[in-house]
Structures are given as structure tokens and as C-alpha cells.
Write a structure and sequence with these properties.
This protein has a single domain, classed as Rossmann fold (3-Layer(aba) Sandwich). The protein has helices at 10-18, 49-57, 76-84, 95-105, 119-129, 134-148, 163-179, 189-199, 208-215, and strands at 2-4, 24-25, 29-30, 45-46, 61-67, 70-75, 89-90, 92-93, 112-115, 156-159. It is globular and about 55 Å long. It is built from nine helices and ten strands. The strands form three sheets. Strands 8-1-9-10 form a four-stranded parallel β-sheet. The protein has a four-stranded mixed β-sheet with strand order 4-3-6-5. The chain has 217 residues and is α/β, with parallel strands linked by helices. The structure holds adenosine-5'-triphosphate and the ligand Nc1nc2c(ncn2[C@@H]2O[C@H](COP(=O)(O)O)[C@@H](O)[C@H]2O)c(=O)[nH]1. Adenosine-5'-triphosphate binds at residues 6-12, 125, 128-129, 160, 163. ATP binds at residues 4-11. This is Guanylate kinase. It is an enzyme of class 2 (transferase). Keywords: ATP-binding, Cytoplasm, Kinase, Nucleotide-binding, Transferase.
């Protein structure tokens, strides 16, 4: 599961990371307006607040959260169906929902936080994407500061400065996590290399001071 601030590049990374892979990407429900070019059922299931709240009342979400004035949630049924088919499931969600997944699934969920190189760069990316008003960009950046300070709660932290390197790190995490389900003696050389690379992006040694430097930069 990928989490991190809005505009850090989660969607961009996900497209490159999962290209050609047989995994299930969970399409979220949201109450926000569709942006030009977004397609109902592909980018999101766009619903009214009443429809969203009814689904939540029926326990139809694995997690759900409010983000800058809108509801977002991961519908549980498609995930259960994908897991029953034996597919790995990928979520791309904000931090409050990611915390809910962590609480609910424990070690069963592989949690990756995507970190921006700096808040200045995050602002540049949100502005460059041109999907939000200046006011909404400021609200998303405020939320980003809180989200970044929680990065250490996730198993891996990958900095999305160089996109290609970040994709390689995501692939390594995926390969390493799959390998750890088998005895180490049976790992291939590629799995050993992936494990070593994944170890460099474990969140274990992350200090609050380092997170503060990102939000102040
Ligand atoms: N490594 C990178 N270097 C420079 N620009 C990047 C990089 N990764 C992504 N971007 C750009 O940053 C912008 C935001 O990326 P993207 O939409 O993938 O973010 P996101 O985290 O999925 O956002 P949201 O959570 O709001 O959906 C896009 O314009 C994208 O092209
Ligand atoms: N908790 C959840 N967060 C989600 C979900 N789907 C997307 N998101 C995150 O919301 C913000 C804003 O998204 P945007 O499309 O309006 O830019 C971003 O961080 C998304 O990753 C979800 O199902 N649950």
C-alpha cells in the first residue's frame, strides 16, 4: 500500500511500478468532483455524500477518511474478490486511511510512505499539475505537513526525487517482501539484491528531526 502527501507522485510512481504486473489496483470511492479527463469507475467511483455515507454505514469500506473537504474510501468487496483470486492488492491512499489499514491488517499490509524531496518541490508539483485552486493547494500542503510527520509509522519510506530510482526501490520492496515468505536459503541472487536495496529504505532509523527538515524545506 502506498501513502503520502497529495501531489508527491504516488499515481505517477504506481503507473510505472505496476506496468505489466498482474496485481489488483483498488479504485476508490470519492465525493469530490471529477477532474477533466477523469473517468467514472476507472480513476474513482464518484458518488454523492449520501451514497458514500450509506456505504460507510453498511461497513462497505476497508478504510475511509475525509481529505480537504471530501470523503475518500476503499471499497472492501473488490479487494476480497481479488485476494480470493490470489492477486496482490495495491492501494494508493492518504495517511489517515493508511493508518486504519495498518491497524486492521497488521503485518499483512506492506506499507510504503512516499516522501517529497521538500515542501517547496511538493508545492511546485501541485501547482504544475494544475488540478487545484491556489486555496486548495494551500490546504493540501497544510495536510501534507501533518502527513509527513507520520512517515515513520510505515514500514518503508521512499523519497520521490528521481522517479526511476524510486520505481526501482518500489520493485525491490515488492520482490523482497515476496521472498521473505520463503526460507532465506532458497532466495535467488536477484532476491538477495532486492532485499539489500529494500533494507536501505526501511523506516526504522528515521528520526523526527529528518521529517521536520522536509516540512520546513
Ligand atoms: N519524481 C518526480 N519528479 C518531478 N515531478 C514528478 C515526480 N513524480 C511525480 N511528478 C509530478 O508531480 C505531479 C503530481 O504527481 P501525482 O499526480 O502522481 O501525485 P499523487 O501523489 O498521486 O497526487 P494525489 O495524491 O493528489 O492523487 C504530477 O504533475 C507528476 O507529473
Ligand atoms: N483514505 C483514502 N484516501 C484516498 C483514497 N483514494 C485516494 N485517496 C487519497 O486522497 C488524496 C486526494 O486525492 P485526489 O485524487 O483528490 O488528489 C490523495 O492523497 C489520495 O491518495 C481512499 O480510498 N482512501
Amino acid at each position: 500500500m502506498m501513502t503520502g502527501a497529495s501531489g508527491v507522485g504516488k499515481g505517477t510512481l504506481r503507473e510505472q511500478w505496476l506496468a505489466g504486473q498482474d496485481v489488483f489496483y483498488s479504485t476508490s470511492w470519492t465525493t469530490r468532483e471529477a477532474r477533466p479527463g477523469e473517468v467514472q469507475g476507472r480513476d474513482y467511483v464518484f458518488v454523492t455524500p449520501a451514497e458514500f455515507l450509506e456505504k460507510a454505514r453498511q461497513d462497505g469500506f476497508l478504510e475511509h477518511a475525509q481529505f480537504v473537504g471530501n470523503h475518500y474510501g476503499t471499497p472492501i468487496e473488490p479487494i476480497e474478490a481479488a485476494l480470493a483470486r490470489g492477486q496482490d492488492v495495491v492501494l494508493e491512499i492518504e495517511v489517515e486511511g493508511a493508518m486504519q489499514v495498518k491497524d486492521r491488517m497488521g503485518d499483512g499490509a506492506i506499507l510504503v510512505f512516499i516522501m517529497p524531496p521538500s515542501l517547496t518541490e511538493l508545492r511546485r508539483r501541485l501547482t504544475g499539475r494544475a488540478t487545484e485552486t491556489p486555496e486548495r493547494i494551500e490546504k493540501r500542503l497544510l495536510r501534507a505537513r501533518e502527513e509527513i510527520m507520520q512517515a515513520h509509522a510505515f514500514r518503508y519510506v521512499i523519497v520521490n526525487d528521481d522517479l526511476n530510482r524510486a520505481v526501482q526501490e518500489l520493485l525491490a520492496v515488492q520482490q523482497a517482501e515476496r521472498a521473505t515468505q520463503r526460507p532465506e536459503a532458497n532466495w535467488t541472487e536477484a532476491e538477495r539484491e532486492a532485499h539489500a536495496l529494500a533494507a536501505t529504505v526501511r523506516s526504522g532509523a528515521l528520526k523526527t528531526e529528518a521529517l521536520r527538515q522536509v516540512v520546513d524545506s
